[in-house]
Give the backbone structure.
Amino acid sequence: MGNKRLTVREIARIAEVSVATVSRVSRGTGQVSPEMRERVLRVIDEYGYRPSQMGRALAQQKHGSVAIVFPGLAGPYFSELVQGFEAEAVAAGIGVHILVTHHRADSDGNVLDMASRVDGVAVHGDTVSTETMRRIAAEVPTVVLAGRPLDGVPAVRADNSAIGELTRHLLVDHGYRGLAFVGNPDGSPDVTERWEAFKAAHKAARVAVPRSPIRLGLQQSDGVLAAGELLDGRKPPRAVVCANDETALGMLIGALGRGLSVPGEVAITGFDDVPMASLVQPRLTTVRQPIRELGATTARLLISGLGNPGAVMDAVLTTEPVLRESCGCPRT
Amino acid sequence: MGNKRLTVREIARIAEVSVATVSRVSRGTGQVSPEMRERVLRVIDEYGYRPSQMGRALAQQKHGSVAIVFPGLAGPYFSELVQGFEAEAVAAGIGVHILVTHHRADSDGNVLDMASRVDGVAVHGDTVSTETMRRIAAEVPTVVLAGRPLDGVPAVRADNSAIGELTRHLLVDHGYRGLAFVGNPDGSPDVTERWEAFKAAHKAARVAVPRSPIRLGLQQSDGVLAAGELLDGRKPPRAVVCANDETALGMLIGALGRGLSVPGEVAITGFDDVPMASLVQPRLTTVRQPIRELGATTARLLISGLGNPGAVMDAVLTTEPVLRESCGCPRT
DNA sequence: ACGTTTGCAGTAACCGCTTTCAGGGACCAT
DNA sequence: ATGGTCCCTGAAAGCGGTTACTGCAAACGT
């Protein structure tokens, strides 16, 4: 510790070869005779030489890392997303930068700043303004994550329309009326699409949407709050469609805590199919979304997919309703 | 998009000044006359010049970013920790790298690899071997996060002994016998210390520890599993001390789902004081730990505190028992 | 009026690695 | 024996900034 790192020149001097040879050996590229390779490797190993990433980056004109920008880490959704992204990048030998915006407007500067440290940026749908998005994309290859493509910027997202099927299931198969939607459509592109699908399903079933969405966040605690808002009122809903599983679980906890029967008195559905969804009692009806795959696909696109001819511009991953007991279906 | 980025030499040529002047203006260091500054700034602004981080890194011999290594992102603990770390670093203009080990043994190579991309590394206690830890520390300034200091490597951690006070509270104040501990002491330094404190409190109260710990993970789903293991047995515990809030919440869900009264038939406590702890019914008795501050302190230490004379070697943040209803205390 | 300080701008030498290009030796075919 | 290939190796030119040092002119002091 403290002894200055040695450079490629030092190694070359010690091994009595040229720096070019050392570089070729350490990178494993180009032609090197076995005895040369052996000699250099011995010295590299003995002195524990590791090439400087700074020098390498400058010479190759690439940082060797990508970034992911998202609003916060609360809940399993972002955890899975980030982990999927990270795992894929690391598997490709690429480093991962993160930037959390915390929903603050003044993070645009940070985003731009960060964009100059990486070879590619994945920006989650509800983090920065369209304008900032464009400026990032002008600096560095960019992908929109969980949002719509923008100009030349490709996107990776999940099919939110399945929440429409779920709504239809509640309205038609179960015959429920008086549904509530928990989630803020202005909060993120995903919730926007889910609210639209919820409304569309009502229209298709010729049922009026009974009330405005409960505009809260997407955390479990928001679900608990939503339970207070909906279930203590004079006219509680017969079924609650939550924008994600976290709020659905909070709603469930809130409902059970009030002594209500689920799904007997109020049915509850979510979106994501997080692990807890099948562990609670009653098990949660939801929509399965491949969150990890979403992150992984984004990383792949960023690392090797961009700029290729025929590169995908809008990857939409499939989702699937999962009917369990919280909607009123019998246990299979 | 696609037009090659311009360099400091380009800007110098256009503004008809030397590269040194451009650099001085863009960095804001050194003496530059007002008219020169003005002229350079105009060109920088007009052409949207942003200095390359690679060139800057090489010249200054610093990457301008730090890394945090942890086992996974499941649950609010790691989310808060990472966000605290990230926020502090970004506020100091430093980028943040992450590396998730996923508890895989073969991630040592990745860690070393990553260590050469940053100016400092924070390693969470239960991620890499002692040997790897040493090798990282030999390459780059390092801090242990939620673990004990190691050789010359400082640590930042929370005081886990408060779980002993909580155990004493259950044994003495409430007079419970037959306590169970949920958490794997070999899983992480934190859990080790909590299990030790749990045992020490038994010893102090002259009560035998009734059984081995339930060695499961720290996620909410593990708490649900632990509930199955403990509550369906012939001799269920009177109280369950969980290694963290997540497992305690899972345990609570499992207990309530079995129709058991909490805390009447089984008392439950946690550790962390996550937001959900005060939202569930009954509210969770736990130990408050400043998770975010843990991450922030680590980042501060890494960025500006290391190497200073009198630098802290072992920062222990204080914790505090929070008595709510899940242990049997009356609602205040 | 003359020497000395002071302020500002420019030249050029790095920072550490990659890679092109050129050179040299061994081997092959004629 | 000789010209041509093929394989390796090394010298050197970047990659894009930063900064020590140099030089010049203006301001200052006596």
User: Anything to note?
Assistant: Residues 59 and 298 of chain B are 27 Å apart (CA to CA). Chain B touches chain A through 57 residues (CB under 8 Å). The first strand of chain B starts at residue 65 and ends at 70. Chain B has a mean pLDDT of 93.
